[in-house]
Design brief:
By secondary structure, the protein is α+β, with helices and mostly antiparallel strands. The protein is built from 23 helices and five strands. It has a five-stranded mixed beta sheet with strand order 1-2-3-5-4, with helices on one face. Helix 4 runs antiparallel to helix 5 and helix 12 runs antiparallel to helix 13.
């Protein structure tokens, strides 16, 4: 099922490429840059910025972002809100393909906000479609369907058959995820009927492919092969290398599920050959993983390990720098600055009203005084409401960053456990398999071989330990106290003696509160081990009616709390910002040679 969903993501990616460029001539990049640099017509420049950004969307993320920002700035200056909404949407798309889904959502909703005043139903439907894909990607399936239904209703009111067919295919994927295969096939079939009416061979091929994919999931292999081969035949006639590579991959998946491994390997190899030429790494990753599974099922563990290695090398090439980044914090700053600008505008309006009132007070002193008092009261209330709104936006932005950080930890932990961990396990399996086939010259060689197996085994345990530390199972199962105890139990008592006292934590706290407090305590303990030189550490967690109090006290070398540079480090900043997120307080009591006490208090709301 997982591999089928991964393939579906590839199909949607290809459909998006087609929708972006199907109605336009090939983009002349040099001509567009000349228009931007030398043309004095700002309206033409806006169009050139948008076209160039679309061309760069799948080629150069940084260049695309630069063009989108410049184009949005010019469109805003011209009050061209239709183009401005498109710039926001494509900025969201660029973050979506970068893997930063929270950042993508920010820009999609900004585009919708603009379209509230600039009425363009077709553009609104396009943004709703992108939001549907985003929520489908994050598995918020009900919300994804809501977005797709709203988009479909707009396309139907516009009698836009192409839009309706696209939404039917997109929403069909959601029903695949829900394992409602009957509804998925129904939507794919309706989409195909529209494509046939439009004589759209590209769209028809995708619908055929989707139906074949569902038949594969239902183990109707004869039906699946029929539809997949029909789709492949159309794509070959269209000479669409990208789609042909996807078809070979889906045929490989179908034959693998059928148990016809020879045919599956043949199709995956054809798919990889095309994907390598196009540098379509996502498809290669999927294919190599499936080939590794097939080799393992055939008992060819050496070949399986080879495929896993190829998959890991490709994954490192695209995820080492891009996919390890946190949610872009500039979005939170942007939202705050936007609210501040709104506050300045409202203050300006208030000042204008003040001047008007002061002009009228000449003949109506008593009435003006009472009116001014009423006005001042209203002004204060407006100011308080605005400040509350700004604080709420800041809290939401901070929470999004914290949640994104935890989600990234979960993803990395899963990658370590399921990717590297599986490869190490496969390596150990292969070593064990050949142990009986090797003739050792002496006992020293056997000992050396056993040591190698032992090192691989220890590496497996280390990968498992790191993945569990990044997302502790105890926190998910039993709560804060158990998670902290499990973390502390893994610390070598020869390095430092740790005493833990927990009280009043029988009932679970809010999941966000537990996660943030766990990370704070983890950061405190790591700081003690790395920097304090202490040999004793006392930790206390006490929950009462006032909230939760936590103390971390060591007997190390301490530091001067008046030294501001100490608080500029990432560790102490992380502790302070996380506690502030929970509306709590943190105090540091330390001096050189006297040890350090970190006292934290967090209010617990029911």
């Amino acid at each position: 099922m997982y591999m089928r969903h991964l393939k579906k993501s590839c199909f949607v990616f290809s459909l998006l490429c087609c929708s972006l460029f199907a109605d336009s001539q090939p983009v002349q990049v040099d001509s567009l840059r000349i228009i931007i640099q030398s043309n004095k017509n700002d309206a033409e420049k806006v169009g050139a910025y948008l076209a160039l950004s679309q061309d760069l969307l799948f080629k150069d993320f940084d260049a695309c972002q630069t063009n989108l920002k410049a184009g949005a700035k010019l469109a805003e200056k011209l009050k061209d809100y239709g183009s401005l909404s498109e710039f926001k949407k494509f900025t969201g798309l660029s973050w979506y393909f970068k893997g930063s889904y929270d950042s993508a959502a920010v820009y999609y909703y900004q585009s919708l906000d603009i379209l509230k005043t600039y009425n363009d139903p077709s553009k609104k439907a396009g943004v709703l479609n992108e939001l549907g894909k985003l929520y489908r990607k994050t598995r918020d399936l009900d919300r994804a369907l809501q977005m797709y239904d709203d988009a479909f209703a707009i396309y139907r009111s516009l009698n836009d058959e192409n839009g309706m067919a696209t939404i039917l295919n997109e929403s069909g994927v959601v029903f695949e995820y829900k394992e409602d295969y009957t509804e998925a096939i129904k939507r794919y079939t309706r989409s195909m009927e529209i494509r046939e009416k439009m004589n759209d061979l590209v769209g028809k091929a995708y619908s055929l492919n989707f139906i074949g994919g569902v038949y594969t999931l239902q183990k109707n292999y004869a039906g699946a092969e029929k539809y997949l081969l029909q789709s492949l035949d159309i794509r070959k006639k269209l000479n669409d290398s990208f789609s042909i590579a996807l078809s070979y991959g889906d045929l490989g998946f179908m034959y693998k599920e059928q148990g016809n491994y020879a045919k599956a390997i043949e199709q995956y190899s054809l798919s990889n050959a095309l994907a390598a030429k196009m540098e379509f790494i996502d498809l290669q990753l999927s294919n190599y993983k499936e080939l590794a599974v097939i080799a393992e099922k055939r008992g060819d563990f050496a070949k399986s390990l080879e495929y896993y290695k190829k998959q890991t090398e490709l994954k490192d090439s695209i995820y080492s720098s891009d996919k390890m980044k946190q949610i872009e914090q500039l979005n939170a700053k942007y939202q705050t600055e936007k609210k501040e600008q709104q506050l300045k505008l409202q203050r300006s309006e208030i000042d204008k009203k003040n001047y008007l009132l002061w002009g009228l007070t000449g003949g109506f002193c008593l009435l003006a005084l009472s009116g001014f008092a009423f006005y001042r009261k209203r002004q204060i209330n407006n100011k308080m409401n605005l400040q509350a709104a700004i604080m709420k936006q800041q809290d939401l932005a901070t929470k999004a960053i914290i949640n994104a950080e935890e989600n990234e930890r979960k993803r990395i932990a899963a990658e370590l456990h399921d990717g590297v961990g599986q490869m190490m396990s496969a390596a150990k399996m292969n070593l064990s398999a050949i142990e009986n086939e090797i003739t050792f010259k002496d006992e020293a060689q056997r000992t050396y071989f056993d040591n190698v197996i032992g090192m691989v085994d220890e590496s497996c345990k280390e990968v498992r330990s790191v993945s569990h530390q990044m997302m502790p199972n105890a926190l998910l199962k039993s709560g804060l106290a158990s998670a902290v105890k499990e973390f502390l139990d893994k610390i070598d008592t020869r390095i430092i003696t740790i005493n833990l006292h927990a009280e009043g934590l029988q009932e679970r706290l809010d999941s966000n509160t537990e996660t943030v407090l766990y990370r704070v305590i983890q950061e405190c303990v790591n700081n003690v081990i790395k920097h304090s030189g202490a040999n004793n550490l006392d930790i206390s967690l006490i929950k009462d009616a006032d909230g939760l109090a936590a103390t971390v006290e060591d007997n190390g070398r301490g530091f001067d709390t008046k030294d501001k540079q100490k608080f500029e480090g990432i560790g102490l900043k992380n502790i302070s910002s996380r506690v502030a997120f929970l509306k709590g307080t943190v105090d540091f009591d330390s001096s050189p040679g006297k040890g350090t006490l970190v006292a934290i208090h967090v209010p617990i709301t029911s």
